[in-house]
Write a structure and sequence with these properties.
Layout (H helix, E strand, L loop, with lengths): L2 E5 L5 H14 L10 H9 L6 E7 L2 E13 L4 E11 L8 H16 L4 E2 L7 H9 L15 H7 L6
Parallel strand pairs: 4-5
Antiparallel strand pairs: 1-2, 2-3, 3-4
Length: about 160
């Protein structure tokens, strides 16, 4: 039994969306998923994709995914890889699949000359934190994520008046 990591293929938007929903359920954020197959298809498989996805297969069965995109470090003057989501189905954890996906992403960074591999983790998800630290990740506890979305984004963008 072994793992294979491969790029998601056109026609697999439903599979990717299913992984997104499984991850959201695990993170207790299922109600936050607004994406549909069309949005996933457009993001991953358009002529100029905005995001990329790797699928982990265990003996040919899809068991996990990593969804990522490029970011940029002005301090380093180069792109980096931002891992938006990584998920392995619970029944397949402990087999090295998550590590294989992170390794594949790290290899891609090195091959492309990208400066770093970054992601976030929920502060309550101690198993994930332990796993990431075991892979060599440094948790940047002095940084806070900022986000503007929904009505606040519309207000800031001038689409709604205060």
């Amino acid at each position: 039994m072994s793992v294979e990591i491969r790029p998601a293929r056109p026609g697999e938007a439903a599979l990717v969306l299913n992984f997104v929903r499984e991850l959201a359920a695990y993170e207790k954020l299922a109600d936050d998923v607004e994406a549909d197959e069309g949005a996933i298809d457009d993001a991953l498989f358009a002529e100029a994709p905005k995001a990329f996805c790797d699928i982990a297969e265990w003996d040919g069965e899809p068991v996990g995914f990593a969804l990522w995109f490029l970011n940029f470090s002005s301090f380093r003057g180069r792109s980096g890889l931002y891992l938006e989501d990584i998920f392995v189905r619970p029944a397949h954890r402990g087999r090295g699949i998550g590590r294989a996906m992170l390794r594949k992403l790290a290899e891609r960074c090195l091959a492309e000359g990208w400066t770093r591999l970054e992601w976030t983790v929920l502060d309550w998800n101690q198993p994930a934190i332990d796993f990431y630290e075991a892979q060599g990740a440094t948790l940047l506890r002095d940084w806070t994520i900022c986000r503007i979305s929904g009505a606040a984004l519309r207000r800031l963008g001038g689409a709604e008046q205060d």
